[in-house]
Amino acid sequence: MKTFSYKDSTFGYIPCNICGSDDYSVIARKSQNDLDARTCLCKTCGLIYINPRMSKQDYDTYYKYYYRQDRMRIKGRTEGCGLERNFSAARKFGNALADKFAIYLKQGLTVDVGSSTGGILYGLKEKKPELEVLGIEPSLDESNYANAKGIKTIPELFENVEFFGRENISNILCVQSLNHLLDPKHFIYSAFERLKDGGHIILAVKNFRHQVRRTGKVSSGVQIDHPYMFIPETLKLMAEKAGFTVVYMDSDEYKTKDELIAQKESGMSVHHIRLVGRKDNKENRTEASIPKDLSRKIRWQFNTLNVKMYHLVKYSRKFNFLRKILRIA
Length: 329
Fold this sequence. Notes:
With 329 residues, this protein is α/β, with parallel strands linked by helices. It has helices spanning 56-65, 67-75, 79-100, 119-127, 140-148, 184-194, 208-215, 232-241, 257-265, 294-301, 304-314, 320-328; strands at residues 11-12, 24-30, 36-42, 48-50, 53-54, 109-113, 132-136, 153-154, 169-175, 195-206, 228-229, 245-251, 272-278.
């Protein structure tokens, strides 16, 4: 097996993936496992991303030979049970997606970018057997597992795959994977071009703001396998700038504990953003503008003091008594 060294990787600076600006604020300098990962917030549109970051070649090596072991180590799990647990949970999630988004899932080719062990596509087909499914997954361990389960999966970075040469795709999914893409803008614009008119893109993305508020520390949400970090405002902006009409959007950020428990029991993920974008006739495509003061508002939310205060009031056990009083009142 090849070895991987983060500190010995090749790094390069990149512009904002939404607006192209290179003017940013630094909001964290370490990852959740104490690696040197500088997290930046674009001063023009508010997108959050790691900059500088590893080269495409180093990310390819990381995903193919080290990603699974790295995530298992951080989570304190053993490698032997990771793939099985991943597939089982994703299968249940796929069932839940098929139920919740049935009106958006059209018959035909359904592509999942960042398909992992293939569980989501497997779960979708259980509920909607008319779907033709294809996965794209750079982790060899996960893509091999998916293929063994009968889910056709290409073991490559999305950026290396020419599958968007196929026209008239009915559904494109990127579930818990958009953060991992090195060029999410290219993915979303490509999805718009290759979808049928009336086709949908379905995104489920970790909400970075929700994640850091729960812990009270910005660096706790930073992972080297997440070169981009989204919040509802920037995810919607990216989809609309590509030409999609956002027909559904949901965030777990302000839901109650009981709501999140019920959602998790149904098989859906929690602490995420879910967005469905519809491709209308591309001749009518218009590019959305960046809302005034969007970046300034986001920068204020990610101020170190604001993150800590929000955590203390909303999530810290020290304030449980106050929250109970407020609920009674």
